[in-house]
Amino acid sequence: MSKKIEMRLQIKLGLVAVGIGFLFLAGIGLASITSFGPWGVPHSKRADYESRLVAIKQRNTKIDHYETRSRPIRHLPIQSRNLGFISAGESLTAVFDVENVGRENLSIIKQHSPSDLEVKIQPPELRPGETAKVKLQWRLNESQVDVETGRESTTITRRARFATNDPIDPTFELKLEAKLRQKLLYPSKIQFKPSQVAEPVGKDFVVSSQTLTDLDIDSISCDAPGFIVEHSKVTDLAQLEEPSTVSASRVTFQFTPLDYGDFSWPLTAKIVNDDRSIEKIAIELTGRVRSPISFYHPDMHRKQGLSLGTLSADTEHTFHVQVRLRHETHRRLEVLDQFPPELDVVMSPQASRGIYKLTIVARKGCSTTEFNRVDRRGFIKVGDPEDPAFFRWLPIYGAIVNIAD
User: Fold this and answer.
1) Are residues 175 and 241 in the same domain?
2) The CATH number of the domain where 171 resides is what?
3) Which of 49, 50, 335, 366 is in the most buried spot, having the most CB atoms within 10 Å?
4) pLDDT tens-digit profile of 152-173?
5) For residue 108, what are the contacts with CB-CB under 8 A and spacing of at least 6?
6) Residue 48's pLDDT is what?
7) What residue ranges in 140-215 does DSSP mark as E strands?
């Protein structure tokens, strides 16, 4: 009997060994057919990565091939220039040096350049040690200005591509950059910090030009309440941040919001051009006026209000909300209205002037009521009983569940 058991154990051990050996061989086979991509290269950029690797290998192969052979070698100390500012119809010129630092003659030909870029190569054939002058003359067309102009100085570029007989670096590119002079520069939008009701707010801004010799403002209008404005020409143009300014005017304005909440008013100015024609510009004035009454609670949402949650009528639930007067603290606040009526709402003044405690109580045994639906939301209206226009709504939402109902 013991021999049979021993034989069975040997058979089981043999099968286990065969299984482990099979798994080991399978692992080797899987490892041999599994390939991992380069670390840090996303799959979407794998093709570009592989093409760059191929280009690097081809370049290294060329370098090894020509290491002991004589060849032309082109060298460019500078390949781009910033020409400052440019206007429609104006011509700008830049000259680049191309050196032949190799031991064979270097040939340079133009491959491609934009229609408004004139290219001259002198000389196109260089002996070893010689330098060629590549002259680029850029004349900006009127049709391109309409497409590229904007409220801020727009940087535009032009590129010219060249081919050489340098076997390792056969092509090169020269680039010109310039900022397009703008007819009018001004802010498209002015954002104000939060303010109080009936508190005057104001600002100043500059309307400048890089083309108009005498920028003049004919009139400025805005529908904001209490809007007043004045403007004057800027005589010291060096104080302006925008370079290449030819003329400018500074505008100072003020208005007085009379209601709380977000506001937005367009400011319109009429600009007189050099030919005495009128051009209109619009600037958006935006901001927010704080409510004179504010509510504070840990569960308060700025837009949705106070969440009371789902309350059981088996026990009493109490919530305290701090109410503050931002200004006009001499006013007396009270609860003017509420929903649902099943809630007990009381407001009491605190030691500090203009601060109140609003207490919301869901009584024990209260009947079931819902005030958390879109068509049935709760609210508490707090305000000055002597001034019907001075109040604020506190949205509340939740539900009271009485199982006995």
Assistant:
1) no
2) 2.60.40.10
3) 366
4) 557 889 999 999 999 988 999 9
5) 74, 98, 121, 124, 125, 126, 132, 134, 162, 163, 164
6) 85
7) 154-164, 171-180, 189-191, 201-209
Confidence (pLDDT) at 249: 94
8 Å CB contact between 130 and 98:
no
> Domain for residue 2, yes or no?
no
Helices and strands of the chain, counted as H and E runs: 3, 27
On whether both 105 and 119 belong to a single domain, the answer is yes
**Do strands 372-373 and 344-349 pair parallel, antiparallel, or not at all (unpaired)?**
unpaired
What range does the domain containing 250 cover? Answer: 189-289
- Do the beta carbons of residue 91 and residue 138 sit within 8 Å? yes
What number of other Cβ atoms are within 10 A of residue 168's Cβ? 16
Q: For the chain, first and last CA: distance in Å?
A: 78
Q: How far apart are CA 182 and CA 210, in angstroms?
A: 5
**pTM higher than the cut 0.85:** no
For residue 122 the two structure tokens come to 């002198």
DSSP state of 317: E
Closest by Cα among 89, 180, 210 to 142: 89
Residue type, 325: L
Q: In the structure encoding, which two tokens stand for residue 64, read together?
A: 């090894």
Q: How far apart (Å, rounded) are the C-alpha atoms in residues 102 and 130?
A: 10
The answer to whether 206 and 271 are in contact (CB under 8 A) is: no
- Whether residue 25 is contained in a domain is answered as no
Q: Alpha carbon of 270 to those of 182, 251, 267, 283, 348: distances in Å?
A: 17, 12, 10, 12, 54
Residues 274, 299, single domain; the answer is no
> Cα–Cα distance between 206 and 152 in angstroms, integer?
13
Q: Report the CATH number at residue 383.
A: 2.60.40
Q: How many angstroms separate the CA atoms of 334 and 346, rounded?
A: 8
Query: CA dist 18 to 14, 21, 27, 281, Å?
Result: 6, 5, 14, 86
CA dihedral 238, 244, 248, 252 (to 10 degrees): -60
Residue ending a domain, among 180, 200, 232, is 180
